[in-house]
Amino acid sequence: MQQRALIVGVSGVIGTALAEQLTGDGWEVYGLSRGRTAVPAGCTALTADLTDAESVKKALADLKVDKVFFSVWSRQANEKENIRVNGAMVRNVIDALGDGLKGGHVALVTGLKHYLGPFDAYGKGAVPMTPFREEQGRQPVDNFYYAQEDEVFAGAKKYGFTWSVHRPHTIIGFALGNAMNMGQTLAVYASLCKQTGQPFIFPGSKAQWEGVTDMTSASVLAQQLEWAATTPSAQNEDYNVVNGDVFRWKWMWGQIADYFGVEAAPYPDEMQPLEGRMDAAAEQWKAIAQQFDLKEADINRLVSWWHTDADLGRPMEVFTDVSKSRKAGFTGYQPTRDAFFALFDRLKAEKLIPA
């Protein structure tokens, strides 16, 4: 029997990769979003304001699905508002589908801010020892990830579905207009440096430059989501998910520089975040887009300076343990350098960065 999935946040980095994974495996896929960006090929688009229960109910009326995947959030002014808004979005979808979810599965993607704390208190508390493990549990702070989890847990009890929670590190993947996309941001930054002669300077902290870290390919995450949704023994559990390798940015920065044919600058005397330093980038990118006949001249549809600064500016080492999912049977793996290069190749092929 063909499986039917609803992806909430289908046009993002995770949603795009998951849609490609599931449609490639023969699933019937519906994508729920605000409708600002086209859904991936093979998906049926559904549009709603996820913060409006009636809007969601109307959009999902008569929809029958076996699996629901949440990869969605809306950034608010503070964490209290993040909790209110982002918790409600999960609750609105679950309640709209209601008893139709009985015997099905709901998967929620959050991330390592489960361990690091939310943006309001990012890395300021007693961060657990690395590598992060699922058994370390929640931090004693307000966190919208916890609110979203609690909505899934409550829905599972009320409507009788299984669940899984997935915690990737920074994700490498393809999407337009996404608020958190380091891979594309670095591709555009390197392209700007090559075309304008600016130095390719690492924008983050010395702790990140020198420390061990890892990342998550959107394709590996998509594989884990499908695995957990279709493997009964893997359900009702939380899982970290990363590529499986570790690296140091002082090595990876040179690899990225070599790919783009630019020179990797030495680590600077002080941090040089991208936000602020890229004030002229929008106009520069318009000129580059015209010169190379690129599809997207609006740099803000491609980059997220603030999010890349936040991830690379962490004052501590961050990496994860994925033994739990390995022991449960998930074997997805991709070297992080390969994940970056695959993304860069796709961005060139899609004419979003110069070839």
Automatic annotation (TrEMBL):
Keywords, in A-Z order: Oxidoreductase
The organism's place on the tree of life at top rank: Bacteria
Keyword Nuclease among record annotations: no
Enzyme Commission (EC) number: 1.1.1.-
Gene3D superfamilies: NAD(P)-binding Rossmann-like Domain
Pfam family, one: PRISE
Alphabetized InterPro entries for the sequence: NAD(P)-bd_dom_sf (IPR036291), PRISE-like_Rossmann-fold (IPR055222)
Keyword Aminoacyl-tRNA synthetase on entry: no
GO molecular function: oxidoreductase activity
Ranges of residues in domain PRISE-like Rossmann-fold: 55-354
Designated name of the protein: SDR family oxidoreductase
Biological source species: Erwinia aeris
